[in-house]
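User: Fold both of these, please.

Assistant: Here is the first one.
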Amino acid sequence: MLLTCMNRMACEAFLGKAYAHWFLAALTSSTTASLNPLGYVGIPLTQPGILVLLLGIILALTFWIIHTALGPQKYILFILLSVFTGSVFLGVFEYLGKKGLVVDVLITNCFIFLSMATLGFFDRQNAFPFWMYLVAAFTGQALGRGILSLAREKLKLQNQLGDINTQDLYLSILSTTLFAVYVAYDTSMLKRMARQCNDQADPIQGAMGMYIDILNLMRYGRV
C-alpha cells in the first residue's frame, strides 16, 4: 500500500514536470543564443566545420542522456545539451544574418513551455485533454510576444536580443504557432509515459522523448 502511494506521488503531474524541464532547456538555449558564451572564448560559430562538430556533440549528448539514470549527471548532460543546441541555432542564424529571429523564437518557446508546465502541475492525474494544453501553449506564446516587444521597445535590449524586421517577425509568429500546436499534440506521448510511470519517474526522459520527436519531424520535413 505504501509503495503504491509512493509510486503515485512520483508520477503525479508528470506532464508538468516534463514541460518544466523543457522550459529549463529552452531558457538555457535562449540565454546561450543571446549571450553567445562560446563566442567569448573565441569559437567561431558561423564556420561550417564548427557547426558540424557541435551537431556531433549534440547527437552524442542525446544518446548519453537517454541511457543515463536520473541523477546529477543526467541534469548536467541535459544542461550541456541545451547550451550546445542554443549555440548551433545561433551559429546557423548568425550565418544567415538572423540572430534576432532565433532569439525571438527561443524566448517565445520558453514562455510556451512555462505556460504548459504551469497547467501540467494542476493536471496531477495527467488527464487534461489536448485542447487545454493547446490553449496554454497559445497563452504562453502571446505572453512571450508581449515580453519581447516590451524588452525591445521599452528596455532597449536590441543588442542582447538582436534586431528583427517585419518579415522575420511574421516568420517567428508562424513558426512558434506551429511549434505550439505540435508540442500540445505531443502530450499524447507524455501521457503514455505517465501511464507507464513508476517510483523512478524520469521527467528528463519525457522531455528527451519529445526532443527526439521534434528532430524526427524536422528530418522528415526535409524529405
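And the second sequence with its predicted structure:
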Amino acid sequence: MRIYFAGPLFTPYERSFIDQCAAQLRSEGFEVFVPHEIPLPDPEYLANLTKEQFNTIFAGTIQMPMVDERVAIFNEVGRVLVEKYQGGYHNFVRSCSPRLYDQGNGLLERLVTEFPRFNDVSDYHGNKVQIFKLAQLGIWGMHLALSPRGHWKLEDASELTAFADYIVPVGLRVMGIFEYAKELEDQINNLQEVKRDSDAEVELRASSIYCIALLTEEINKRRPGMTPLLMPQLDFRFWKSYHATHWPHHLTPASRALRIWCSVTGAPAILNMGFGVESVSGANRVPFPPTRRIAFSIGDFKRLSFEQLQ
C-alpha cells in the first residue's frame, strides 16, 4: 500500500508535523508519498523540469494525459519567477496591488498577463469572454489562508466571481435553475466530450458565473444588516454539495485543475496543483491516476491507528 500524505504548509509547524507522521509511517513499513519532499515549488526546478522527471513524479498505472502541455506550464512558471522575481512567487504578489483590478497593476490583471497559463479566455462569436477560473481560485485561496494571519489580504474580494468549472453547472441543473437544450442534455448524459471553447462549453461556464452572481445578490437582499455573502462562498456551497453527485457533468479536456482520486474510496485526494483535466464523470468517475493511494487530512490521521491503516 502506498499512502499519500499531505496537508497545510503555511507554517513550519505544519510542515514538521507532516514530516514526523511520514517518518513514523515509514518506520512501520509503509510506503509514503509526501508532495513537499519533491522540489516542485522550487522555480529553478520547475524551469528545468523534463518530461521524464514529470512522469516519474506523477507515475501511475496509466500515462497521465496532456503531459507535454503540463511540463510546458511548469517550465514557463518557473522561468518567469526566476527571471523576474528572484525565484519567489511571494515577490510577484508583493509587487502587485493587493486588489484584483487596479489600473493594470491588480494581482489578477498581472497574473493573467505575466503567466499566460492563467489567461482563461474564450472567444464567443467574436467576443472575448474572460473566465479566469484558476487565477481567481488561487487568489481566493491565498486570501483565505493569509488574511486571518495578517500576512496578506485581498482588498476587493467582493469582485471575485464564481469559479466556473464542471460541478457548479451540475448543481444548477439538479436544482432546476439550469435547463439544457435536448442535444446538450443527451451529449452530457452519454458522456460525450464537450469541446473546449465550443458554444456549449462557453455558455455553461459563463451562465454558471451569471447565475451565482444573481443568487448571491438575492440572498444578500434577504440578509440585511449581515456580512454580505461573497460569490466564492456560494460557489463553494454548490461544489461541496454536488461534487460527489451521481448526476453526470460535461467532459472537457483542459489543463485547468489536477484532481487525483483515491482508487480505494473514490474520494478526492488533497492535492490540487492547478494542472490537470476535467474529465471524470459522475457515476462513472474513474480514479486518476488509478494507483493505490489513500489521501488523509491532518485531522483524519490523528484519528487513525497504524492497525487501521493495514
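The longest strand covers residues 2-5.
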